[in-house]
Design goal:
By secondary structure, this protein is mainly alpha-helical. Helix content is 76%, strand content 0%. It has one domain. The chain starts with a helix and ends with a helix. The model has no long low-confidence stretch (mean pLDDT 83).
């Protein structure tokens, strides 16, 4: 499959993704509303720090952290694993295999098409709260603000590749959906989703350095909420680039091994 074919097909795949999002808007809205954990944690932590700081964070810094957390979560989250599991279970994945585009890119376009819809719902609330409560705590360096979208984009790609690999477990397990609960538990613990990693027990913070979860959430949060030097920004982006390569490689290996089992079941 050539790169030119993928590029040529991408606009059509994106239009299809938009149509799917609109067609299943009820499920989409439910998914968005279930990713509001940062708002709950923000309420809890601002209550705790109403009189004194906690771990070097005051109330305004927690507001900024969790509002940025909400933005990153909405812009990088995806449900491709559950989509793949359902298609494998129902056998409808076979239709994708007849198309000249690798399913990886078809799923990627489908998930990318939903990002503007998630942004429309999540960003206004986050921006209002940031401006009113936590804006003065945010970094203002031009290079950092310019690199923040790059970090968020890399985080989205890592999250997609990891979830794609997770979806491939449906080729090997009859009930793979339970794995999603384990995944979310690990993500919440090691990504900084529930608490900043510098407030977590030291062993958790150390382990997080060797997982992709940190690079899906905590790294882009550093760009959005903590002042960084140019060298630090490049170091963080390099870590994301490394995990992106690892995640895509894992996704492709899982797909190649899994699709053989899918074909054998279908014969």
């Amino acid at each position: 499959m050539s790169v030119a074919r993928v590029i040529k097909a991408m606009p059509t795949l994106l239009r299809v993704g938009v149509a799917e999002t609109v067609a299943y808007r009820a499920e989409f809205i439910v998914w968005v509303l279930t990713t509001t954990q940062p708002l709950i944690m923000m309420s809890l932590m601002t209550f705790i720090t109403r009189e004194q700081s906690f771990g070097g964070y005051d109330a305004k810094q927690f507001v900024a952290y969790y509002m940025a957390n909400l933005i990153v979560r909405q812009l990088t989250g995806n449900w491709v694993a559950w989509q793949m599991m359902e298609e494998v279970r129902m056998g409808t994945l076979a239709m994708r295999l007849l198309r000249p585009i690798h399913p990886f890119f078809a799923y990627l376009a489908s998930q990318a098409a939903a990002i503007p819809f998630r942004a429309v719902i999540a960003l206004p609330l986050a921006i209002i709260l940031l401006v009113s409560s936590g804006a003065e705590t945010l970094p203002h360096a031009g290079y950092q603000l310019a690199l923040a979208p790059v970090s968020i984009f890399l985080a989205w790609l890592i999250a997609f590749a990891v979830m794609y690999a997770l979806g491939c477990l449906a080729f090997f397990l009859t009930q793979a959906t339970g794995i999603g609960d384990v995944y979310f538990g690990l993500f919440s613990l090691f990504s900084g989703y529930l608490l900043p990693l510098d407030l977590m027990p030291h062993p958790i913070a150390v382990i997080a350095d060797y997982t992709p979860f940190k690079y899906m959430m905590y790294v882009p949060l550093q760009f959005l909420t903590r002042a960084q030097t140019v060298e630090s920004c490049l170091h963080l982006l390099a870590g994301q680039a490394i995990w992106l390569v690892i995640s895509i490689a894992l996704a492709m290996v899982m797909w190649r091994r899994g699709i053989k089992r899918f074909e054998s079941v279908g014969t």
